TrEMBL record:
Residue ranges that the Swiss-Prot or TrEMBL entry lists as coiled coil: none
Designated name of the protein: VOC domain-containing protein
Organism field: Trichoderma asperellum (strain ATCC 204424 / CBS 433.97 / NBRC 101777)
One of the GO BP terms on file: L-methylmalonyl-CoA metabolic process
Domain VOC per the UniProt entry, residue ranges: 174-303
Higher taxonomy: Eukaryota, Fungi, Dikarya, Ascomycota, Pezizomycotina
GO MF annotation, one: metal ion binding
InterPro entries xrefs: Glyas_Bleomycin-R_OHBP_Dase, Glyas_Fos-R_dOase_dom, MMCE/EMCE_epimerase, VOC_core
C-alpha cells in the first residue's frame, strides 16, 4: 500500500485565525418534527422565521443550529460556521479563492459570513461581527433543583446539603464539534489546514497498515490559550464511500447528571438512541449519541479535554473509542438517514 500519512501540521500567522466554532446549518424534510426533537434535546429557540428556526444554547453565540425546511424533501448538512478572531482575519478568509461574502443582518446577532463550497455539496463558513449573547451569571438547568460539590471517599465538601433533580432535557451550552467522512481525505485536509488554524490533537492509523492515517481530531491553535481537544474531525472514507458526509455534530452540556437525565428524557420521549452513555478515550468526553428526526447523528457531551500550543500531536493505531459504556454499534461510522440526500 502507498503511504497515506498526514504530514506535520502547524499554525502560522499567514493562515486565517479562527476563534471558535459557532453554529451549523441543516435542512430537514419535516421542520415541525425536528422542532419537537430540538426541544427535547435541550436547544432553546432564538428566533423563528418562515421555514427557518434559529436554535441557541446558553453560551455567547446568538445561535448554534440553523434548521431550514428542505424544498425537495431531502435532509442535508450545509456546513459549520467558525468565528474569525478579528476583522482582519475575516478579510483574510474573504480573499481565499472561492469565497462568497454575504450579510447576516436578518439572523439573530447580525454580522457577516463568508462561505466556501467544497466537494460533494459540502460547505464551510466563517462569520464575524455577530453580537454575542449576554450570559446569565448562573448556569441554567432544566433538571437541577439543588446541586453541590461531589462528595468523595476522603473529601466530602457538601456538608448538610443535598443533591436534588427532576426530569427534563439536557440544556445545551454550545456547539462543540463536527466531523466529516471524506473520500478525498488528503486533499481536503490540506485545504482546511493550509488555510485555517486547525492543528491535529490526535492522529490514528489503520490497524493493518501503519502507513495509512485514517482519522484526525483537530483543535484550533489559539497559542497559549486553551481550546477544546477537537472542534473538527476528519475520517478517511472506506473505498466504497464515494461522497463526503457529516458523521455527527456535538453539543456541550453541564455535567454527568445533566447527561444522564437528558438521556432518560430523550428515551421517554421516544427518540432513538445510537450509542451511549459512555466515556471516550481521545478527548475524554462523556458521550451520548442520538438520531434526530431526519436521521442525523447528534451528540451530547460533557467533561472534554482542552489543549494549547504546548500539547504535542499524538499518533497511534485505531483502538477502542470508549473507556466504558455500551459496545460501539457496527454501523456507527455509516451514513444513516431516513431520507438520503
Amino acid at each position: 500500500m502507498p503511504d497515506m500519512l498526514i504530514p506535520p501540521i502547524t499554525n502560522d500567522p499567514s493562515k486565517v485565525q479562527l476563534a471558535r466554532i459557532s453554529h451549523v446549518y441543516f435542512e430537514h424534510h419535516d421542520l415541525d418534527k425536528f422542532r419537537e426533537f430540538a426541544k427535547d434535546f435541550g436547544f432553546a429557540e432564538a428566533e423563528v422565521a418562515k421555514d427557518c428556526i434559529y436554535f441557541r444554547g446558553y453560551g455567547v453565540d446568538p445561535y448554534v443550529y440553523v434548521a431550514t425546511k428542505s424544498k425537495d424533501g431531502k435532509p442535508r448538512f450545509l456546513g459549520p460556521a467558525f468565528v474569525a478572531a478579528s476583522e482582519e482575519e475575516f478579510q483574510k478568509a474573504s480573499s481565499i479563492k472561492g469565497a462568497k461574502v454575504m450579510d447576516l443582518g436578518s439572523a439573530p446577532g447580525g454580522g457577516k459570513i463568508v462561505t466556501f463550497s467544497r466537494p460533494d455539496d459540502t460547505f464551510f463558513h466563517v462569520v464575524y461581527g455577530q453580537e454575542e449573547r449576554v450570559m446569565s451569571k448562573e448556569e441554567p438547568s432544566a433538571t437541577h433543583e439543588q446541586q453541590g460539590a461531589f462528595n468523595k471517599p476522603f473529601n466530602k465538601p457538601r456538608l448538610g446539603k443535598f443533591q436534588r433533580y427532576h426530569p427534563g432535557p439536557a440544556l445545551v451550552h454550545k456547539l462543540g464539534h463536527f466531523g466529516y467522512v471524506v473520500p478525498e481525505f488528503d486533499q481536503e485536509l490540506e485545504w482546511y489546514t493550509s488555510n485555517f488554524n486547525f492543528v491535529p490533537s490526535d492522529i490514528l492509523y489503520h490497524w493493518d497498515f501503519s502507513n495509512i492515517d485514517v482519522l484526525t481530531f483537530m483543535h484550533l491553535d489559539l497559542g497559549e490559550e486553551y481550546s477544546d481537544h477537537h472542534c473538527f474531525f476528519m475520517q478517511r472514507a472506506e473505498p466504497h464511500v464515494k461522497k463526503t458526509f457529516v458523521h455527527h455534530t456535538s453539543y456541550e452540556v453541564a455535567d454527568f447528571d445533566t447527561q444522564l437525565l437528558g438521556h432518560d428524557w430523550l428515551a421517554k420521549k421516544g427518540w432513538e438512541s445510537v450509542w451511549g452513555v459512555g466515556r471516550h478515550v481521545l478527548g475524554s468526553q462523556i458521550f451520548d449519541y442520538w438520531r434526530d428526526s431526519s436521521g442525523f447523528k447528534i451528540e451530547h457531551y460533557t467533561d472534554g479535554d482542552v489543549v494549547n500550543t504546548h500539547i504535542p500531536t499524538k499518533r497511534d493505531v485505531v483502538g477502542p473509542f470508549s473507556v466504558w459504556g455500551p459496545e460501539v454499534p457496527k454501523d456507527f461510522g455509516d451514513k444513516s438517514l431516513e431520507t438520503t440526500g
